[in-house]
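Sample intake sheet
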Amino acid sequence: MSETHSYIVGVDVGGTFTDLVLYERATANIRTVKVPSVRHAPDEAVLAALDKVGVPANTIDLIVHGTTVATNALLERRGARAAFVTTAGFRDVLELGRTTRLVPNSLYDPYFRRPKPLIRRRDRHGVTERMGADGAIAVPFDPAEIEALALRLLADGVEAVAIGFLNSFRNPAHEQRVRAIFARHFEFVSISSEVLNEIREFDRFSAVAINIYVMPVMQRYVGRLTRALSERNPHTSFYTMASHGGLLTSSTVATQPVRTILSGPAAGVMSTVHLMQTLGIEKLITYDMGGTSTDVALVTDGRFPLKRETILEGLVVHLAQLDIHTIGAGGGSIASLDAGGALLIGPDSAGAVPGPACYGRGGTRPTVTDANVALGRIGDDQELGGSLAVNRAAAEAAIGQLAREAGLSIAVMAEAILTLAVAKMTSAVHEISVARGFDPREFALLSYGGAGPLHACLVAAEIGIPRVIVPPAPGAFSAFGALCSALMKDRSTTLLRRLDPEVLTLALTQCQDLACQMQQEFAAEGINGTRYTTEYQFDLRYEGQAHEITVTIPPAADCARVMELFERDFEREYGRRDIGRAVQIVTLRVLGRVATELPRWTKPVPADGRPASGQNATQRQLISGQGTIECPVYQRAQLAVDQRVCGPAIIEEMSSTIYVPPSWQAVVGRIGELDIRHKPTGSLTSTPIESRT
């Protein structure tokens, strides 16, 4: 990075707000801004946030952003009209799938409907060709047939073409040569062996179909944003968060946008790993509640929680990604009553426009945020994100309409909305902890996102977590996480051999070859590879099984070590070991990372140099179904290290609001984090806030 420039910028484009973190490299000072997201043109919100932060463009060295553009295009079916070209007789693989319902965490769903395929049957075409399972050409393709098909698709209005042939993971020659023909007629062409070079044709075909479906949308979006940033400062580097937590160049995003499907929530996990290393914490459960959804993840020993697959609205995304569990419960989630009068939360969200009723932007339906406003946990006229002022009367009117339908008071209905939202979020935490063999009582809950700290202690109490941590600027924590990520590539290849010393040597050699290829790609992109590191992973299974477990393998591991690592993880997943049973290596994976300059947190100083005290805190009435209580309200910017806040209390800041319930106590940590712990009621002092120094 140039020494004449001073700032790096992280941006998180969410469904409701776009958050920006400005980090000054010399002083480690951090500034955050929020602007409402622009759903139809997310790049406009990014540029608006840069304008709002108010520093000259020529002082910004680096911009990293996480985005939901590809995700939204997929979920809302706003992608390209694409064609799929495959081996004759296999055009229906995309629709047949795995013959399962693809509904995660559900034994039975009476309302399930198989989602329509991204590419219609009339746009799926089989051609004469066949590659053998050993990679030998069994039936050559006919260039004249491919040329005629390309012209026919072009005349029919097809915009993009995906190509996926049987056994192309063994030999991609046919896919590559057919792509060259289609590329003469189409701007957007993608082949399965470059998106996912692994066994199982459905997984490969699904990956390339998703990739081509969102490719035009992402290319245009990233292209507009790249050009706009370059016009401001041609020397500013620009990267995008990938689903696996690494950074991608714009050229990679343009050709493999499927790798950004989970770009948004990934940044928060990367920031979490950096925070764990800073504070020396070994076990955290992340809890990121934004305006539209809540994302949770389990992180131990500072390791990135990677998984191989996500099922998104019935679509299989079989690519490296951070293991993040998402539910449709956010601050903007709409509350309603079903036909039987039962209360529902989400999955519909008010988004940024019209937003919750309390935003005063035209929203009239009650949301989780409105419930917090009606109960006083968010104050009347309080500014959210420095751009929206809360209207309590509008929130009460929206809640009141629902309350009348249910025959309840506004306060009781608002409490019911929060109780149900907390229950949904607690279920998500249970899913990634207890359901996987982890005891949540051994973890702390790291709460961030604009709405997370309002509910974190309530979620922790429900599942038995004794400690909650709220980082500095929690509403922009994911934007900060974009700056904590390394440039990253991943490659895979199928081996499908029984584990023994000879096969292990072959596997490690192939991993080394893949690692060298990625290092050369980094060099070709002009990226300094002196900080290049690799991680080897094997997909392993007992012989005869149909499913694998991904295990990280040390480069110097022997067979006994590989077996032990596999059987340890197998036992955690399934509760047993099959001692003495042969193990098979299915797929080899290599992750290559080039480290970037990590930002750092600094010791906070009260805004005016004087710590807040109980005497200068304002007071607010918190409402419940049982009555009202007086609650002190503090400004986080006025809190100093080692100060203590005893609940009930409200702590406000630009990016979020923190609720400390009765019998909980918050202490300001050395980098400004709030360490909130559950205490027996009798152990709290009567002084709401005091300094331990």
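Comment: Residues 682-693 have pLDDT under 50 and may be disordered. Residues 164 and 205 are 6 Å apart (CA to CA).
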